[in-house]
Amino acid sequence: MIKMKIINKTRLLAVKGNSILVLEKIDTPIKLSFAGGISKKKETLEETLVRETMEEIGFKINPNDLTFFKTKSKTIDNTIIVKHYYKLKTNSDAFKVIETEKFKAVYWIKWKDAIEYLDKEDRKATKEYFTKKVRRNIKLLKRIEKVLSQNK
């Protein structure tokens, strides 16, 4: 029987309006990523995300401000890699690249402009977040219009 190894990773989907916070990797061509990393033993996913974000970009997160968004997994050889996405709405610009050996920049970018430079899982999570948000807003507007029309 083959024993499967499980690696838990966290990802921060920091949102400011229609923009997301991305880290630009040193690679060429451009590759973008979210802050986050691999969980250590006895560390909660939120603790991992807080630690990794501080290590990578010096951005201090209050774990109470995080909202779990989704989990995505894939299997490579005998390893299951599980990415846990957390959403954070913020207007902060209090960050800078700390891990300069991995990243050359960190910045806000419109999500539609970032999509092609994200990896497959980050791309899917971003699209899911923003397209569901748009659908929720459209439904809300339709309900408001209905109430307003009934009150005429």
Description:
By secondary structure, this protein is an alpha+beta fold. It is built from 3 helices and 6 strands. Strands 1, 2, 3, 4, 5 and 6 form a 6-stranded mixed sheet that branches. A hairpin with a 2-residue loop joins strand 1 and strand 2. The radius of gyration is 18 Å and the shape is globular.
Task: Set down the secondary structure blueprint.
Layout lengths: L4 E12 L2 E7 L6 E2 L11 H13 L9 E10 L2 E11 L13 E8 H4 L5 H31 L2
Parallel strand pairs: 1-5
Antiparallel strand pairs: 1-2, 2-3, 2-6, 4-5
Query: What's the structural domain tally?
Result: 1
Order of helices and strands: EEEHEEEHH
Top-tier CATH class:
Alpha Beta
The parts where pLDDT drops under 50 for at least 5 residues are none
Keywords:
alpha+beta, 32% helix, globular, Nucleoside Triphosphate Pyrophosphohydrolase, six-stranded mixed sheet, 6 strands, 152 residues
Short overview:
The protein is of the alpha+beta class and 152 residues long.
